[in-house]
TrEMBL record:
Domain Tim10-like: 50-112
Topology of the protein relative to the lipid bilayer: Peripheral membrane protein
Assembly information from the UniProt record: Heterohexamer.
Record note on domains: The twin CX3C motif contains 4 conserved Cys residues that form 2 disulfide bonds in the mitochondrial intermembrane space.
Compartmental location: Mitochondrion inner membrane
Name under which the protein is recorded: Mitochondrial import inner membrane translocase subunit
Family according to the record: Belongs to the small Tim family.
A GO CC annotation given for this chain: mitochondrial inner membrane
Pfam families (alphabetical): zf-Tim10_DDP
Described function: Mitochondrial intermembrane chaperone that participates in the import and insertion of some multi-pass transmembrane proteins into the mitochondrial inner membrane. Also required for the transfer of beta-barrel precursors from the TOM complex to the sorting and assembly machinery (SAM complex) of the outer membrane. Acts as a chaperone-like protein that protects the hydrophobic precursors from aggregation and guide them through the mitochondrial intermembrane space.
Keyword line: Chaperone, Disulfide bond, Membrane, Mitochondrion, Mitochondrion inner membrane, Protein transport, Translocation, Transport
One of the protein's GO biological processes: protein transport
InterPro entries recorded: Tim10-like, Tim10-like_dom_sf
């Protein structure tokens, strides 16, 4: 969805905050998501949909960044050549799978607590 198609002043203020505090993007989007029913009076359905898409995109980007950082530091111990060795490739693959598995376990645990 094209954000320029959205006209809400509240949305513009919200997005300007996001641009200023992009390191807290997910926090702002979670804050927005937690507004619940109060959102319907302030934002249109298109705006809510757009912001939820942005939240999902930000969460995926954050997960990829964390996974890449953790697995790269663990598996690539020397300067990489033009191609990963089989052990580096295997390590990265295993690390990514473990990271995703643990993320799901943690997420399910938090969901069961609520």
């Amino acid at each position: 969805m094209d954000p320029s198609a959205l006209n809400s002043p509240e949305l513009e203020r919200f997005l300007s905050l996001l641009l200023l505090k992009d390191s807290n993007l997910i926090g702002y989007l979670i804050w927005f998501d937690n507004l619940g029913d109060g959102v319907s009076g302030k934002f249109s359905a298109k705006e809510v949909y757009f912001l939820k898409e942005e939240k999902e995109r930000a969460m995926v980007n954050e997960m990829v960044a964390k996974l890449t950082s953790a697995c790269w530091d663990k598996c690539i111990t020397s300067a990489p050549g033009s191609k990963l060795s089989s052990s580096e490739s295997s390590c990265l693959s295993n690390c990514a799978h473990r990271y995703m598995d643990m993320s799901l376990i943690i997420m399910k645990r938090f969901q069961s607590m609520n």
